[in-house]
Design a protein that fits this description.
The chain has 6 helices and 10 strands; from the N terminus they run ββαβαααββαβαββββ. With 191 residues, it is an alpha/beta fold. It has an 8-stranded mixed beta sheet. A two-stranded antiparallel sheet has the order 2-8.
């Protein structure tokens, strides 16, 4: 069975975006080479990525081109190659097709489809998108949360999870510190 991991850069007040349109790329983030190389190492281990439509469209607009862009650092190009090659599933009721090793799922039984994917995948499954992660959490399909906490308080913006979940206790599995004061915490979701 796969292990679903919601992986996100967040502020200290657990915001993933400060303003509209940031799509996970706000200037408040401190992502230098060592941190990006850590992202690459973890991303190489993923057997599957499950993404909401918005985060997928953000990623597909940049990373496939980044894979061969000579103006980018090698670790950025590497992530582009990893993202492009990794099998992906996009959860959407409006999108019908996608490139880069991607398929679309949706409809009223989408959580059952994702449960089957989780059951049939051997290894880590990256989860991208707050609405998707919230739904997986509410349906008991989210196993871990991997947070890269940047030393900034945004005060407003998109939260890590949407409202609607009950109290859930988590267990700290791993932590690390990176340049610029970024701290990584990996938690197991309690059942």
């Amino acid at each position: 069975m796969g292990n679903t991991v919601y992986w996100m850069n967040v502020s200290m007040d657990l915001r993933i975006e400060h303003g509209p349109g940031e799509q996970g790329g706000g200037s408040w983030m401190r992502i230098g080479e060592p941190l990006h190389r850590a992202f690459n190492e973890r991303a190489r281990q993923l057997k599957l990525m499950i993404q909401g439509r918005i985060i997928h469209e953000t990623m597909e607009s940049f990373w496939p081109k980044a894979a061969t862009d000579p103006t980018l650092d090698d670790y950025m190009q590497e992530y582009g190659r990893i993202w492009t090659a990794t099998p992906k599933v996009v959860v959407s009721n409006t999108r019908r097709e996608a490139d880069h090793n991607t398929r679309i799922v949706g409809g009223p039984d989408v959580m059952a489809q994702l449960a089957t994917l989780r059951r049939d995948t051997a290894g880590p499954i990256g989860v991208g998108g707050a609405a998707l992660a919230t739904n997986l959490l509410q349906h008991g399909l989210l196993d871990e949360v991997l947070l890269f906490i940047h030393p900034v308080i945004l005060g407003s913006g998109r939260p890590l999870f949407d409202d609607g979940s009950s109290l859930i206790t988590c267990e700290l599995l791993e932590q690390a510190t990176f340049e610029g004061g970024v701290v990584m915490h990996r938690y197991a979701i309690g059942r």
